[in-house]
Amino acid sequence: MAYELYYWDGIQGRGEFIRLALEEAGADYVDVARGDGPGLGTDAMLDIMKNGTQPFIPFAPPFLKDGNVFISHVANILLFLGPRLGLSPEGEAQRHMANGLQLSITDFVAEVHDTHHPLATSQYYEDQKDAAKIRAASFIKERMPKYLGYFERVLQENAAGPSYSVGNALSYVDLSLFQVIEGLLYAFPKAMEGYASRCPALMALHDSIGKRPNILRYLASERRLPFNEDGIFRHYSELDQQVG
Questions:
Q1: Domain count of the fold of the chain
Q2: Which residues pair with 66 in a beta bridge?
Q3: Which DSSP helix (H) or strand (E) runs through 70?
Q4: Which of 31, 91, 115, 139 is the most buried if burial means most Cβ atoms within 10 Å?
Q5: Between the CA of residue 104 and those of 25, 135, 202, what are the distances in Å?
Q6: Which burial class, exposed, middle or buried, applies to 226 when counting CB atoms under 10 A from its CB (0-12, 13-18, 19+)?
Q7: Predicted local confidence at residue 91, as pLDDT
Q8: Does 54 share its domain with 119?
């Protein structure tokens, strides 16, 4: 039975972290809100959110359905999918390590979002541009190097070598780091200049993930939506700046 992924149509958003794992593993899945037909489309997703019954009523997408099991939140979904897709390290300690890294990625992505919506998600970007410029400048100068430096250190200190974030094989964390770098290169191309030398292991990981056969096919397919100014990673030239 195919996995059912529920996330908003028209954007990559947080659902993309789930898609990358499913695509890398060659898993059979249905992107429900993007579908057309009975039980598909955004209305089908909203119906579950509004009319779902216990034991599961999702607060917001993404969420995943596997048979009769529903799982919500990116890190939780990947914790569930990882062993089933062969994208989770072996051993309880390393599985918790991977989950902790994914939760840190979740925090980082939230800060990326807040660069263009620092005041309220209910307001348009144009209504908070001045605050966004202040927030983005702080993010570029302080938060982005802190997070990227942390993930670089994780790779460099991996006892199995810097090719992977946890253990000696690809995990969903590596795929998520690829997506983070892809998003930052789109949103902040000027600010990302120089990170190839500042975070060589992280950027090498990004490059290697982008060359994996299943990921290459996915990126070239219609299933991979382009970044746009409705998603998490948005490019506004007035928010992007080089770091001195």
A1: 2
A2: 69
A3: strand 69-72
A4: 115
A5: 23, 20, 15
A6: exposed
A7: 92
A8: no
3-class DSSP state for residue 17?
Answer: helix
Domain that holds residue 27: 3-85
DSSP string, 91-141: SHHHHHHHHHHHHHHHHHHHHHHHHH-SS-TTS-GGGGHHHHHHHHHHIII
Q: What is the mean pLDDT of the chain?
A: 96
Tell whether 18 and 64 lie within a shared domain: yes
pLDDT at 244 over 80: no
Q: Give the integer Cα–Cα distance in Å for 238 and 129.
A: 9
pLDDT at site 56 = 78
Per the CB < 8 A criterion, the answer to whether 142 and 159 are in contact is no
Residue-wise DSSP of 162-227: TTSSSTTS--HHHHHHHHHHHHHHHH-TTTTTTHHHHSHHHHHHHHHHHTSHHHHHHHTSTTSPPP
Cα separation, 66 vs 239, in Å, equals 40
- Is residue 232 within 8 Å of residue 113, measured between CB atoms? yes
- In the prediction, which pLDDT does 51 show? 84
pLDDT (tens digit, 9 = 90+) per residue, 93-141? Answer: 999 999 999 999 999 999 999 999 999 999 999 999 999 999 999 999 9
- The dihedral sign for the CA sequence 143, 148, 152, 158: positive
- DSSP, collapsed to helix, strand or coil, labels residue 67 as coil
Q: What is the CATH number of the domain that holds 156?
A: 1.20.1050.10
